[in-house]
Write a structure and sequence with these properties.
This protein has 3 domains: 190 residues, Rossmann fold (3-Layer(aba) Sandwich), CATH 3.40.50; 154 residues, P-loop containing nucleotide triphosphate hydrolases (Rossmann fold, 3-Layer(aba) Sandwich); 74 residues, 2-Layer Sandwich (Alpha-Beta Plaits). Helix 6 runs parallel beside helix 8. The strands form 4 sheets. A 7-stranded parallel sheet has the order 3-4-2-5-6-1-7, sandwiched between helices. It contains 14 helices and 20 strands. It is 33% helix and 21% strand. By secondary structure, it is an alpha/beta fold. The chain is globular.
Length: 439
């Protein structure tokens, strides 16, 4: 089955994934995997799980704990895309537990992905049977086992009497693994780069702002980067919204992301950034972990990272695999680069403002379609709808994501107005729907 899945995904396993699979599938120890962001840790545990799970047993047999809802959703989708035949479901806050329970009864998931609090809700209510769960996976375990999560994690693990093995994964190691996790003999697979060094493929730059309010300097820096994909990191939600508002007023195409957004807003924001409709993501450190957003050219520390781990995860968003990347420290008059940053740092020579181009417009735009999987709508249906009714060529359509009740599609920005006019009042699979731009 593994070879078939790899053929379907069109990938070859890297060394970390091969070693992890060997340890999980053919060993009997608990496994800790430490590997940089973007190295493929999700596949490293899901592939062996497809062999360990009994496909004839309708009960949940593995629980994957994640610190946030995005990683739970993303990981569940990876399993679905593998085509293993195993049933999966993601559980997280922001929607009614009762609604999830209805879906759970229909799906009968064999692997459940979720945040600690929501998983406890389902276990407490008897929605999820603990008695067949043999495998506990804690993704981003350093975050899941922090003090803020420890009560929920301890309660969750105590509720799973049949656990046989634990698999823990992260880009950075926790100071210690609490006793309540009940780790047995451990095989550690460590593929981290030297955490005191930034990989050679990440070039670090310092940009000095002459004033404490660095927004104007940020705007100039972003203009100098053109249409490159960039994440701007800040430490507070209100700072994210203020900075994003300023950049939009300056003509940039941005998305913003933080933990205070509703789930649908978070999905739309990440979707616009990942499909190229927005080339700038303004975010808290929530975007530094676990999200599968490839091909990020630059990260900008507008606020300094609050810890060395935070710095490592931020920088890990760029230069994934063998790609090159840049990281910029944007410093006010009284700010300094943190002492733990042990890397060669260059001064970034900002071009003269009058010589800089206007903010670059992305080539793609995102549209919202008000029908989804529950309406029997597939990616192929949307592709056909946009070509036949919207007047697009297939080359003018990018990434399509279909959710239960709605879908997003990336289309050529130059065709946005004509497409919206062409599909107004038209039906998709015989049903009228809303089609509008996602801003």
């Amino acid at each position: 089955m593994v070879d078939r899945i790899l053929d379907k995904l069109g990938i070859e396993l890297n060394d970390m994934q091969q070693d992890s699979m060997q340890a999980i599938l053919h060993g009997n120890k608990d496994v800790v995997v430490l590997s940089p962001t973007g190295s493929g840790k999700t596949l490293a545990y899901l592939l062996p799980l497809t062999q360990l799970i009994d496909a004839t047993d309708d009960e949940a047999q593995a629980v994957v704990v994640t610190p946030g809802r995005e990683l739970a959703l993303q990981s569940a989708n990876v399993l679905k895309n593998m085509g293993s035949g195993l049933r999966a479901m993601a559980c997280y806050g922001g929607r009614a537990t009762m609604d999830e329970h209805r879906v759970m009864k229909q799906v009968r998931p064999q692997i459940v992905f979720g945040t600690p609090g929501r998983l406890n809700d389902h276990l407490d209510k008897g929605n999820l049977s603990p008695y067949h769960i043999k495998y506990l996976i804690i993704d981003e375990f350093d975050k899941c086992l922090e003090m803020g999560f420890q009560d929920e994690m301890s309660r969750l693990i105590k509720s799973l009497p049949g656990l046989r093995r634990h698999f823990l994964l992260s880009a950075t190691e926790a100071e210690e693994i609490p006793h309540f996790v009940h780790m047995g003999r451990v095989e550690k697979i460590d593929y981290r780069v030297d955490e005191d060094q930034v990989p050679d493929r990440v070039h670090i730059y310092k940009v000095d702002s002459p004033v404490k309010d660095k927004l104007e300097s940020l705007s100039l820096l972003l203009r100098s980067l053109g249409d490159q994909s960039t994440i701007v990191f800040l430490n507070y939600r209100d700072s994210v919204e203020r900075t994003n508002k300023y950049l939009v007023e300056q003509g940039f195409s941005t998305s913003f992301f933080h933990g205070g957004l509703e789930q649908k807003e978070r999905e739309a924001s990440l979707y616009r950034f990942s499909n190229g409709s927005a080339n700038i993501l303004v975010s808290t450190d929530l975007a530094s972990r676990g999200l599968d957003i490839p091909d990020i050219d630059n990260i900008i520390h507008y606020h300094m990272p609050e810890s060395e781990d935070g710095y490592i995860h931020r920088v890990g968003r760029t230069a994934r695999w063998e790609a090159q990347g840049k990281a910029f420290f944007l410093l006010g008059p009284e700010e300094h680069i943190p002492e733990y940053v042990d890397a060669e740092i260059e001064n970034y020579e900002m071009p003269v403002a009058d010589l800089l181009p206007a903010p670059a417009k992305p080539k793609m735009a995102t549209i919202y379609i008000g029908k989804g999987k529950k309406d029997k709508i597939s990616k192929g249906d949307i592709l056909g709808f946009l070509c036949k009714k919207g007047g697009l060529q297939s080359a003018e359509i990018g990434k399509i994501d279909v959710n239960d009740r709605y879908a997003y599609a990336a289309i050529s920005r130059t065709k946005l107005r004509s497409v919206l006019n062409n599909v107004k009042g038209e039906k998709i699979k015989g049903v009228k729907t809303i089609v509008e731009e996602v801003r």
